[in-house]
Amino acid sequence: MSGSEILVVVAAILLLFGAKSIPEFARFFNKGMRELKKATSEIQKEIEGYTADISDEISDIKSNLNKEIKNIDDEINPNSK
Question: Domain limits of the chain?
Answer without folding.
Answer: 3-76
